Amino acid sequence: MKYLNIILVCILFLTSCGKENIEVVSPGSKLRVVIETKDSLSYKVLFKEKEIIKPSVIGLNVEGKMLGVNPKIRTIHSRSVNEMIEPLYGKFKSLSDNFNETRIDFEGDYSLIIRAYNEGVAYRLITNLGEKIMVNNEIVNVNIANDPAVIFQETSNYTSWELMHMDYSSASAITDGKRSITPVLFTMPDNVKVVVAESDVRDYPGMYLEKEGTGFKGDFAQYPDSTALGSWGFVSVVQRTRDYIAETNGDREFPWRVIIATDDDKELLTNELVYKLATPQVLTDVSWIKPGKAAWEWWHDAMLPGADIPSGMANRNTALYKHYIDFAAENNMEYLMIDAGWSHIFDLTQVNPKVDIKEIINYGKSKNVGVFLWCVAMALTDKADEYLKMMHDWGAVGIKVDFFDRDDQLAMDWYETIARKAAENKLMVNFHGCSKPTGMQRMYPNIVNYEAVRGAECSKWDLTANPKHHVTFPFTRMLGGTLDYTPGAMRNCSPQLFKPLDPGLPFAQGTRCHELAMFVIYDQYLAMLCDSPSEYRKDAKVMKFLSDVPVTFDNTVVLDAKVGEYVLTAKQKGDNWYIGGMTDWTARNLTVDFSFLDKDKQYQVDIYKDGDDAGLWATHYTFETQSINSDSKMTIPLAQGGGLAMRIYLQ
């Protein structure tokens, strides 16, 4: 085999060095990447033999020298891989890692690796320049074909990832200079979906897409030269930048540039390409990493109507947090999240005298409920070792790190440093106020959540956390990985009755069943229940579902889906299945085909579906139990902003 590989390399070198085009084809031949090496290095992508990305330049400007101009090939290596990845947890027990890869080494000590999977293609640059380098810019061009419609998370800064999606009927309708967070989703005239994303961003800034002429180009935050505290006094704000994007090792791999393509919207909801391309797990002892659900006080202002203790934000104290622990324990929830207010913002050793953290943590242990503690990112930049050890010694199981609000190279280093040091102290991490994930959770599976989504918190102050949004971001943001939407609202509202409310007990847009479906459809490995324990205790059937539904699964089957309109997903855990369905503001029928169930077995299904008047009174739902098998089908009407949820178990 060793000699066959050498022969293959030699043949490729002899047959390709004189050519200007090199092709890499996916295992199923659906996707094809063509690398052109004439005057400049470029690529184009074909899906089912139709061009979706026209020739687009690849390059790297290193201290004024452009790698990729007049490229001269030295060697070409190709390989095929067909293996399995066993994630520590996720929505699949195992993932197929099947791709064809070509590596092209060029004169000038740089290389290009191209991979073609059945679900997408990717490339990355590699340099072997030996010493520290300044990267002035990376040239990433995406000359999208056919002037497609675009879902564009438009931003004018490099500090926010919790934005609404702008719908453009065509790429040409976007003004030059407009910039979007990635992933960006394009819809071709023939309904082929193309998503541009990135993976394995380490020691490097995150990528945006900026409209330029008839296409798009990669855009990156410049390297910070000076920073100061701003935005409430505890967020690091870049005041001045240098004229390059990264200061890094000259011998390194750069992030993957990812193109996902499909003509079936359902496939986007199971696409794990960003995860597959990321650096494999580096942790050895992972026994302490346990995804789960958490009670949480912040969204509903710590209000406990009818409770026998004082509640509300002014009464966050030891007794109140014990009440949340009791609620979690009653309902088989693994965690309590204690949000801002338990300590000084910067000095975590200065604990709020009303909150005895050690007593709360010990009480939680007696009830098998672990405790996460909130802090701002800036509190950990200089004293991560001290504070993380302190929280570990107290017995905390995890941290929620908030207000990064950056993804320049230095900020991206913070994420990795915090994840690594948290792992050294056996602490799980929920990143909040953060940039979108690009696969670091594979390398450090103690990262159980990223926010980077316009979540339920927005119900407190505007209309943006609405059902159309709920059935859009699973096809874009969720491609990057787990998210911290924080569902579970119990004051569900139709558009006629909804209004933002802050402070107080907020409302949420969409029906009660729409909200339940989020716990199945969304990938959230630390799933916070955002509402008050007092509200959940009013509805035993809802609480039964929320207690039972897992946060990780063995298998995922998307039954029906259309970007921005509806989602219907089934997920398996052991012998049980869970189904979630959601629609936008359009009432519609969704048909559940149970053919994914084991043949020759009989099941029971608990069904939560919108009430007849849920289009107006969104809290109304019906509950029923039926017998089903793999031959069963069921058509269920969903109200405007409606949903359905099911739990399936053996008879």
Sequence stretches where pLDDT stays below 50 over 5 or more residues: 1-18
Average pLDDT rating: 96
* C-alpha Rg (nearest Å): 25 Å
Task: List the strand order in the largest sheet.
Answer: 25-24-23-22-21-20-28
- The CATH class designation of the domain at 2-277 is Mainly Beta
In CATH terms, what is the fold-level topology of the domain at 2-277? Beta-galactosidase, Chain A, domain 5
Oligomer: single chain
Helix/strand class = alpha+beta
How is the biggest beta sheet arranged? 7 strands, parallel
End-to-end CA span:
52 Å
Strand content: 35-45%
- Going by CATH, the architecture of the domain at 2-277 would be Distorted Sandwich
Q: What level of helicity do the residues show? A: 10-25%
Rough outline: globular
How would you characterize this protein structure?
This protein has 651 residues and is α+β, with helices and mostly antiparallel strands. Among the domains are: 2-277, Beta-galactosidase, Chain A, domain 5 (Distorted Sandwich), CATH 2.70.98.10; 577-650, Immunoglobulin-like, CATH 2.60.40.1180. It contains 11 helices and 36 strands. It has a 7-stranded parallel sheet. The protein has a 6-stranded antiparallel barrel with strand order 9-15-14-12-13-19. The longest helix is centred in the middle third of the chain and has 16 residues, at 409-424. The protein is globular, with a radius of gyration of 25 Å. The chain starts with a helix and ends with a strand.
